[in-house]
C-alpha cells in the first residue's frame, strides 16, 4: 500500500474495516496521520466492499452500520461504501466464518428495493451534508483523540486549516448496549479559556448544549443514535452582542 501511494495513487486502500475496538482504531489512525505515512499516504476508509462483509456488520445490526459509517466518514478525509448492500444493511455471509456476501453481486444481478423504509439513505445523506459543510473533515493531519472513561466510547476532533471550524465526534463502539462516560476536551488547543462557556451543536440530532470546562458527560444508545457529531461554537463578544464562529 505504501509503495503504491509513493508511486502516485491518491486513494489508498486501508485496513480500517477490521479495526473495531478503541485501541485498534486509535493506534491505526495515529500511525496513518502522525507517523511517516502522513507525508505520502491518503487513506480511503471503506466499512464494506463487494467482497468484504466484516463480522462487525454481520452481527451488529443497524447500529453497527450507522457507527461504522460515521467512523469512516469522519476519521478519514476520503471514504466510501459499497452502495445498496450497505444502505440496506445486507449482513448475511455466504457461510459461517466467511466475509463473502450470501447474495453477492459478483455472481448475479440484483434488484435492490432502495425505497425500503429501513434504508439508511437519509442517515447517509445527512452525514455527507455534515462533511460538506465542515471543512475540518477534509483534513487528516489535525485528527486528535481524546480520553473517555469508557473503552466502548471513542472521541476525537478535527480542525480546519484556519482553526475556525472545530468538530468533535463521539461514537459508541458497542452495537448492542448503551454506554456513558466522561469525555475530556482540549480547551487550550481550541483557544477556549477554562472558565469560558461554549456551545456544542449535535449535527446529527440537532440538539445544542452549553459546556464549561474540559470534562463532560456523554451517553449513547446505539439503537437510538450510536454517535454524536458536534460542531464546537465558541462565543465571542462583538458590537452585535454575540457572534458564533465555526
Number of DSSP helical runs = 5
Which blocks of ≥5 consecutive residues have pLDDT under 50? 236-246
* Beta-strand content: 15-25%
H and E order: HHEHEHHEEEEEEEEE
How many domains?
A: 2
**Count of extended strands:** 11
Main structural class: alpha+beta
Largest pleated sheet: 7 strands, antiparallel
Description:
With 246 residues, the chain is an alpha+beta fold. It has two domains: 2-132, no CATH class; 135-245, Immunoglobulin-like (Sandwich). It is 23% helix and 25% strand. The protein has helices at 2-6, 22-34, 55-75, 83-87, 121-133, and strands at 44-45, 78-79, 144-146, 153-159, 166-172, 179-184, 197-202, 208-212, 215-220, 227-238, 241-245. The strands form three sheets. Strands 3, 4, 5, 7, 8, 10 and 11 form a seven-stranded antiparallel sheet that branches. A two-stranded parallel sheet has the order 1-2. It has a two-stranded antiparallel ribbon with strand order 6-9. Residues 236-246 have low confidence and may be disordered.
Amino acid at each position: 500500500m505504501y509503495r503504491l501511494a509513493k508511486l502516485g495513487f491518491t486513494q489508498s486502500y486501508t485496513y480500517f474495516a477490521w479495526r473495531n475496538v478503541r485501541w485498534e482504531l486509535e493506534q491505526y489512525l495515529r500511525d496513518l496521520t502522525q507517523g511517516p505515512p502522513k507525508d505520502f499516504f491518503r487513506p480511503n476508509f471503506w466499512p464494506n466492499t463487494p467482497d468484504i462483509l466484516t463480522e462487525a456488520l454481520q452481527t451488529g445490526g443497524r447500529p453497527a452500520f450507522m457507527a461504522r459509517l460515521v467512523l469512516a466518514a469522519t476519521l478519514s478525509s476520503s471514504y466510501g461504501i459499497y452502495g445498496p448492500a450497505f444502505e440496506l444493511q445486507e449482513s448475511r455471509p455466504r457461510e459461517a466464518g466467511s466475509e463473502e456476501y450470501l447474495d453477492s453481486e459478483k455472481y448475479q444481478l440484483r434488484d435492490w428495493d432502495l425505497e425500503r423504509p429501513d434504508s439508511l439513505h437519509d442517515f447517509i445523506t445527512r452525514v455527507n451534508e455534515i462533511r460538506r459543510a465542515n471543512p475540518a473533515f477534509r483534513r487528516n493531519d489535525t485528527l486528535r483523540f481524546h480520553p473517555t472513561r469508557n473503552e466502548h466510547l471513542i472521541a476525537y476532533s478535527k480542525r480546519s486549516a484556519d482553526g475556525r471550524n472545530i468538530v468533535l465526534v463521539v461514537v459508541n463502539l458497542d452495537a448492542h448496549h448503551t454506554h456513558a462516560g466522561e469525555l475530556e476536551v482540549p480547551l487550550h488547543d481550541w483557544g477556549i479559556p477554562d472558565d469560558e462557556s461554549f456551545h456544542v451543536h449535535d449535527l446529527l440530532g440537532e440538539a445544542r448544549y452549553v459546556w464549561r470546562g474540559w470534562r463532560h458527560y456523554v451517553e449513547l444508545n446505539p439503537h437510538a443514535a450510536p454517535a454524536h457529531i458536534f460542531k464546537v461554537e465558541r462565543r465571542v463578544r462583538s458590537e452585535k452582542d454575540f457572534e458564533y464562529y465555526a
